[in-house]
Amino acid sequence: MATETTTSTSACVDASGGAIGMPQLCPDWFTNQIFWLVIALLAIFFVLSKIALPRIAAVLAERSGTISNDLASAEDLKRKAVEAEEAYNKALADARAEAQSIAAQTRAEIKADLDDAIAKADAEIAAKAAEGEAKIAEIRAGAMESVSEVAKDVAAEIVTALGQTADAKTVGDAVAARLKG
Amino acid sequence: MADATDSGVAFDFKPMDQFIVKPLGGSAGDPVSMLTITNATLWLGISVLAIIALFVLGTRGRAIIPSRTQSVAELAYGFVYKMIEDVTGKDAVKYFPYIFTLFVFILFSNFLALIPMSFSPTSQIAVTAVLGFSVFFVITAIGFIKNGVSFLSLFWVSSAPLALRPVLALIEVISYFVRPVSHSVRLAGNVLAGHAVLKVFATFAASVLVAPVAILGVVGIFALEILVSAIQAYVFTILTCVYLKDALHPHH
Amino acid sequence: MEGELAHIGAGIAALGTGLAAIGVGNVAGNFLAGALRNPSAAGGQTATLFIGIAFAEALGIFSFLVALLLMFAV
Hints:
The complex is a heterotrimer. By secondary structure, chain A is mainly alpha-helical. Chain A has one domain (23-180). Chain A contains two helices and no strands. Chain A has helices at residues 30-161, 168-180. In chain A, helix 1 packs antiparallel against helix 2 (168-180). Chain A starts with 29 loop residues before the first helix and ends with a helix. Residues 1-6 of chain A have low confidence and may be disordered. Chain B is globular. By secondary structure, chain B is mostly helical. Residues 1-8 of chain B have low confidence and may be disordered. Chain B has one domain. Chain B is built from six helices and no strands. By secondary structure, chain C is mainly α. In chain C, helix 1 packs antiparallel against helix 3 (46-73). Chain C is elongated. Chains A and C meet through loops of A and helix 3 of C.
């Protein structure tokens, strides 16, 4: 560089190719830089907005779609598993309830039969007891009558044997009075 | 500027020479007209090609399970998209291609400028001023188109006491018009500072005595510059989003 | 003589970059302190952190620019 002898046409560069002042502030280069910068920015903007960004957005959307699809199908399978378990539990509960109802029904039937038989037996026993009691009362009534008759006869005989006479009515009243006692 | 040292090495500090624009294949000082293909044009073109390579060729497969380059492209897409959604709001998503263009251009220019002997477009005030002022004018236009005259309520802080409002309005107007300047100077200044410091450290490496320290310094500054390249692209983009939010929702 | 004064001015202007460093450190340090108190809220505030750092740093870059202008453009 130092060997160059050509005089610089720029006010910002000295004869040896070094910068005079800050190259950033050299007005000779502004238009060139700004022109190419605008070209570069436009190129980047069009390439990105027409090709790259829609593509990346599509890929990201597709991926999140795939992921959410997978998640949804996993959710679906999980829900099916839960449903199957619920159905199984329900069937189990149904069967248990049925068994219980059958047992209860059987128990009720047996109980009804039993109650029936007990009631019948009770009624029979009651009838028999009533019959027996009636017989006993009859016998007792019969016995009492016999006792008073015998007493009357004996009393009349005794009165006669003592040499007196007594009419039947008097003897009867006396015996009845004594028997009542 | 160059002084002979004891070791006989003359440090020839020329940290600014790397920013000279010259015709491709020509030498510094050759005339540059608007259409001349210069070193700046070359590196802008390389940026464009690199962006096309990553975002068009890299996503060519459209794979559900992405390849390595495709996942990098998707990462950048998701990063900027989420930034716009978070900072500006859902209604700003239609400006996504513009903001994404700014982001990838600055990111790729910054990173490609770290290649030795390359030219860094984002260190040029002309370049960053075009970026910053175009953002400023476009966003101001959007603000007036969307909100009409009520866009001016951006400068009238209705939550402040009435007496303070004119003062605040003045400050708000000034800070609004400083925005494009700071927006562009921040980017250019960061890149320019990093490259100038790299050059100064590299110049020190000419002396055997300090060369180890200088080379370590170059390595350290280079690592810092990689970080700064990414952060400045991020900051430029997020500030664009913040300014856009002010234009879309000026009422605070 | 004028050139030497410009160099001294550039040195003084360069102090501004160091002051901006204090500002950036303030922002980052306070962010870290807040993030350690409430780590769950820290993730949502990184954007604010970077915006704050950018604003603090921009002013440092301005003084760096002034230094450069004094060095090379005056």
